[in-house]
Design brief:
This protein has 416 residues and is an alpha/beta fold. The chain folds into 3 domains: 168 residues, 3-Layer(aba) Sandwich (Rossmann fold), CATH 3.40.50; 113 residues, Dna Ligase, domain 1 (2-Layer Sandwich); 114 residues, D-amino Acid Aminotransferase, Chain A, domain 1 (2-Layer Sandwich), CATH 3.30.470.20. Helix content is 41%, strand content 21%. The chain is built from 15 helices and 16 strands. The strands form 3 sheets. Strands 1, 2, 3, 4, 5 and 6 form a 6-stranded parallel β-sheet that branches. Bound molecules: adenosine-5'-triphosphate and magnesium ion. Magnesium ion binds next to loops.
């Protein structure tokens, strides 16, 4: 359907649709779909309505959708279509035809195509709820109008044209560049490369993010229980303790994330328990100790990152995060590098945007900070083409002030 409209229609100047029909039902179905797609039903001018009234029967409706009634002869189709196309308030037209004894469907189609040839600047689509033979006949002809059997298909085709219009009209801006601690990031990457390691540890990943100006929760790395306790005193309880390993990237799978730790005693116990479990499972290889983090209070977990598409290269990703990523599939992708418009677009285009705005009395997220996070990530990916995978999951939205805070990071590079 998309190919059909794009091969025969120009890009419209706006999103106002007029419908010309000889049958009320399909006219209403088309109207409903226009509204569902977020386009406008064109408001016909008084002059247009007056002109239509001058030749259409009294039972006809001269408001949009224009219902010429079932008995509309060919010249009513021609005159009505001409009149509606000449209205400056109309950007696109749908012509609907249902079989009527006095008319041949192919003759109506030919009349529509002749008018289209004289009005090449506005998209016109046909909805002909008629026999399959009609469409077979069309395929043997040179056509300049896309014809569909059903109204919904036609409207969705127009919606694609409208989306393309909006895309073309977007302001063109360039990606922003932020000041970052490039040296610190470079050292982390080169240290890992020196060990021939593609996967950065969680600790290293968070340090890279923080070097790129992304807000990471208060945290630090500890090699043993004593260091962990000292860190926790600095950060303040409750804390989160998580495994820092050169081998394991999905920490939860091995019981490597302990949240809500209240005091030093519990922290020591969790540390001992983690080590015991890893030893029992033979997972101590690559063990670097733990990360101790402030416990962020948040009900909203987002995900953002980058994945490499074999054809398009680096694609930035944003959406609902945490454990629901795979289940909800509420994520969106854009080509890197991101412009400010791209970043805005990504955030508003996921369903979870409503959560960010503060549904059900939650504190609204600091959307501008989320945008900045996406753009800083994009800069990181641009600076390091060797990054194969990168994600922040979750990027937590603080219950306190709506600030986006990274609590987990994963970076994988290619060494070849
Ligand atoms: N600092 C923190 N404050 C509050 N909650 C946290 C914190 N760190 C982790 N969590 C909670 O624990 C969950 C898992 O943590 P994390 O993402 O670090 O582990 P993970 O093993 O990488 O998980 P996955 O691989 O499934 O993304 C988070 O989704 C979040 O709900
Ligand atoms: Mg995670």
């Amino acid at each position: 359907n998309t190919a059909k409209v794009f091969s025969h229609c120009p890009i419209p100047k706006g999103d106002r649709v007029a419908i010309v029909t000889n049958s009320g039902g399909p006219g209403i179905m088309a109207t409903d779909t226009v509204v569902e797609c977020g386009m406008q039903m064109a408001e016909l001018s008084d002059a247009t309505k007056e002109k239509l009234r001058s030749f259409l029967p009294a039972a006809a409706s001269v408001k949009n959708p224009v219902d010429m009634i079932a008995s509309a002869p060919l010249d009513h189709y021609q005159q009505t279509l001409e009149t509606v196309l000449s209205d400056d308030g109309v950007d696109m037209v749908i012509v609907i035809y249902l079989p009527f004894l006095g008319l041949k469907d192919i003759d109506v189609a030919k009349a529509v195509m002749e008018i289209k040839a004289q009005h090449p600047n506005k998209p016109i689509v046909g909805v002909f709820m008629t026999k399959n033979e009609f469409f077979a006949k069309l395929s043997d002809m040179e056509v300049n109008v896309p014809f569909f059997m059903f109204a919904e298909e036609a409207v969705m085709g127009l919606d694609r044209l409208n989306q393309q219009r909006k895309w073309i009209e977007r302001p063109i801006t360039s990606p922003m560049r932020f000041d970052v601690d490039a040296e610190k990031a470079a050292k982390i990457f080169s240290d890992a490369a020196a060990e021939n390691r593609e996967q950065l540890t969680t600790g290293e990943s968070l340090q890279v993010l923080s070097a790129y100006g992304i807000r990471v929760c208060k945290d630090g790395e500890a090699k043993n229980a004593d260091e962990a306790v000292a860190l926790a005193e600095e950060i303040g309880y409750p804390v989160v303790m998580k495994l820092n390993s050169k081998k394991i990237s999905h920490k939860t799978d091995v019981g490597g994330v302990r949240v809500g730790i209240k005091d030093a005693e519990q922290l020591r116990a969790e540390y001992a328990d983690l080590v015991a479990k890893l030893e029992a499972k033979g997972l101590m290889e690559g063990f670097e100790g733990v990360i101790v983090q402030e416990m962020v209070k948040s009900d909203r977990e987002m995900v953002c990152g980058c994945a490499k598409d074999p054809q398009y290269g680096p694609m930035m990703m944003f959406g609902l995060g945490g454990v629901f990523v795979e289940v909800m599939k509420d994520v969106t992708f854009r080509l890197a590098p991101l412009t400010p418009e791209d970043a805005k677009d990504m955030i508003t285009s996921v369903k979870a945007y409503k959560l960010l705005q503060g549904a059900r009395g939650a504190i609204p997220a600091q959307i501008d900070k989320v945008e900045e996070t996406l753009m800083r990530l994009s800069q990181l990916v641009e600076d390091y083409p060797s990054i194969e995978e990168l994600d922040i999951n979750p990027l937590m939205i603080s219950d306190k002030n709506g600030e986006p805070i990274a609590v987990d990071g994963r970076i994988k590079v290619s060494l070849t």
